[in-house]
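[job 4417] fold queue: 2 targets
>>> target A
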Amino acid sequence: MTAPADRSPLKPGDPAPDFTLAAVGRDGTVSLDDYRGRSPVLLAMFRGLYCPFCRRAIAQLGVTTEKLKAAGVETLAIVATSPENARLYFKFRPTRAPLAADPELVTHRAFGLPRLPVTPELMAALQNTAINPSGELPEPLPPTAAMPALDKIDGFTPSEVDRQDAERQFPQIKGQFLVDRAGIVRWANIETAGEGVTGLGKFPTDEELLAAARALR
């Protein structure tokens, strides 16, 4: 699979590009073809594990996975780090969500998830827009302060791989795509698309994901 440059995010009605990635929780690979003709699949694409918002969303998705499965929808979380780094992290913090590793963000690019241009306006927004997407912080903080604060809550110390991921991915946007069994995108949610930096770190609720799944029927 090649990743088109400067592609807009896929939207409902678009065909989903195929991919083959290293599986994290087992040997071998996982591809979109594994689901084609068999089951719809929710693809949730994340930054590297340095991102505390992503770590929380993956944990939440582990719970939602069972609910989606009951609604007839499979789940695949795609994490932008090396398979080895992902396997080490999830060995100690397991999740029920099936996982794949995409260290080069090839899938993110093919589905059109942007890496925002670094502009003075963006940097000012990251330093001045207060967020608290998980509600864990005593008060909303700018992303530049919220992320280390959440790392401290987690007792998370980034590895060298995490630091390298953070440096080369900044500022990558995450997103979710519900793909039907014919390989067509039926629902999509792109971080910051509606709210700008205020929406950074947000992830759909169980209710939103299940509503999208039920709409496939």
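>>> target B
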Amino acid sequence: MSNVYTKLMAARLKLQNSPLKKSGKNACAGYSYFELGDFLPTVQNIFSDLGLCGVVSYTKELATLTITDGTDSIVITSPMGSAALKGCHEVQNVGAVETYQRRYLWVTAMEIVEHDVLDATTGTDKGAPIKKSEVEAPKQSITPNAGALDNFTADQKDSLALIADKVAGWVKTDIAKAHAECESLENDEKVGLWALLDSKTRSALKDYKKTLGA
């Protein structure tokens, strides 16, 4: 008889054989990654077929994912982080952290390997990202967003990346919510956030803003 561990392993194999596409973009380090929306709907369908259920919960100290088959459970935890982006109230910062923690809990549970993250941030002195120019010499171009993040601290960049994840996800499901999140930021933060968003997300936000007559 299958137990929760063998069912989870079966779920991982099914996900491994499913066609998934990375839609997340990290402009700072230059790599792509899976957003929750890229894999979670597929995971939920697989869990339903195998009789599994995953529930995420939070305390001040831990983010927890409990996977159960109704009889036995597997518990995966992660220490809670924090975000302190100026221009955002406390609930927005909490929401940003929870979104990020939720993603990493599921990535851990399903053994989702994101090689690009490692490739982009290892192999050079002090862990600095490997630039494409070190391997090849593509034509250099200057974009309107070039240098938009230069004046932000590492913590501020991390917080902006959390918000960028949320906005990119909301654009697909609730464009008004995504727009409101962007408008809640101060001007310099908006510029930094814009630099982290992919072109499709930026275009969607621009089109929505036009419908508002802004």
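[job 4417] complete. Note on B: The chain has a mean pLDDT of 77.
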